[in-house]
Amino acid sequence: MRKIHVLTRKEDINREKLTDCTAVVIDALLATSTIAAVLHHGAKEVIPVLNEQEALLACETLTEESYVLCGEKGGHTLEGFQNPDPVELLKRDLSDKSIVLSTTNGTVAVQKCSAAKSVYTSSMLNGPAVASHIKKEQDTSSVLIVCAGSDNRFSLEDFLSAGYLISELIKENNLSWKLTDSAKAAFQLYESQSHRITEVFKDTETGCLLAELGFSKAVTYAGQSGIIPIVPRWTNNRLVNAKRVSC
Amino acid sequence: MRKIHVLTRKEDINREKLTDCTAVVIDALLATSTIAAVLHHGAKEVIPVLNEQEALLACETLTEESYVLCGEKGGHTLEGFQNPDPVELLKRDLSDKSIVLSTTNGTVAVQKCSAAKSVYTSSMLNGPAVASHIKKEQDTSSVLIVCAGSDNRFSLEDFLSAGYLISELIKENNLSWKLTDSAKAAFQLYESQSHRITEVFKDTETGCLLAELGFSKAVTYAGQSGIIPIVPRWTNNRLVNAKRVSC
After folding, report:
1. Rounded to a whole number, what is the distance in Å from the CA of B205 to chain A's nearest CA?
2. CATH superfamily placement of domain B2-237
3. The domain A2-238 belongs to what CATH superfamily?
């Protein structure tokens, strides 16, 4: 049986325990929703970085016009950056662009997971695609779902999105999976709230903060279930659609 | 509005942030269920300690026949100690006894919370009593529910019991409470599972371990909702029933 475990915060990641795991990072508001959205709308890759400085360094390796620089800290747009609001970003021409992305929690969590056997990102938008891809792998490694959380704290939207991913992973053959306590909690919580995800997202701590900052459309967007068939996979320090990798 | 927050593991306790909080520690399998049970069955007090050595030191201050020494580590009974299985303990005469209690998670969590403004312990057994007592306090401090967890990990039974406590706290006037994301998750999870608590308890990681070790009756016992009207409160390095304190 393949194990599924959930960490509720990026601060709980233990690099040494990661190496044999398939890690899936979730920061549903907004980093990993943005990643799914931009890859679906033509971006070539997302380069997730730890902070503003790393973002600027990453841009130095890219040719002008080939990238979009996005970043926020605590919900506020970094100066000279685009806000990583998917609703606004998708209005731009992202075709074959590299998206350099710096966020408070999500991109930091991806970097912290880089030692894992394989690293994906997921969200409400692309949970079924990620689950389907993982199920097709010839692999029995444990699936470690890492909720980015928010500055050291539990985030309800990440935990719910973890539950959605789990429900998609186990739905055809739940006997082939062993869920830890945190995975069971996320799954049971998702099952009880699946009919009102948008409402729950709007009522979360980050959802309320984003609404205050003028990004309520982004919260509604990120609460949509399974609308994007993209599997962002960590490859050569960037996230690309796994289907493109395997072609 | 009074805030309710939930920590999913004792390792997340930040002593400095505790001082203005009402802390409620939950280790439903088994420490805080045992504490409620023994106080209800006549014990004078419970002395929660960090480990075997501290337990033996605590006994030195007590007269022979006045105490019962209970302790486990990783589910296994400490040599020379009684196992803190409430079902077995309640067969003894506990009248006016001090229960010296050392457990892997619960008693350690209580000690780690000792800097809080006030400290209670709760479980499925006595959640309504603890909630009722907290609601009657002339106090607007944040309620911090500390799930002990299990050796650094999330425990489903503690999170569910936190949700039960929250449902009892908010049920008459939910507008007077502000729930953080983790509190909402625990509450929503409890609401969805309240009809099958015993089943969920048996299926948790600790529930399965205890069954393997021969304590399945204790798991069933601890899964009972609201059968004990005891409010264990931390006073002078020990837990006593708050109602007795206030008389």
Report:
1. 6
2. ComB-like (3.90.1560.10)
3. ComB-like (3.90.1560.10)
- Give burial (CB, 10 Å; 0-12/13-18/19+) of A28: buried
* Residue pLDDT, tens place only, A195-238: 999 999 999 999 999 999 999 999 999 999 999 999 999 999 99
What is the reported pLDDT for A245? 61
For A243, B51, B67, the CA distances from B99, given in Å and listed in that order, are 61, 14, 6
- Please tell me the distance in Å from A168's CA to the nearest CA on chain B: 19
Nearest-by-Cβ selection for B156 from A184, A191, A204: A184
Residue of A nearest to B7 (CA): A154
Complex-level ipTM: 0.95
Tokens standing for A42? Answer: 């033509």
Distance CA B141, CA B3 (A): 8
- Given an 8 Å threshold on Cβ–Cβ distance, is B8 in contact with A180? no
What's phi and psi for B17, nearest 5 deg?
-85, -5
Whether residue B19 contacts residue B115, with contact meaning beta carbons closer than 8 Å, is answered with yes
Asked if the bond preceding B30 is cis, omega within 30° of 0, the reply is yes
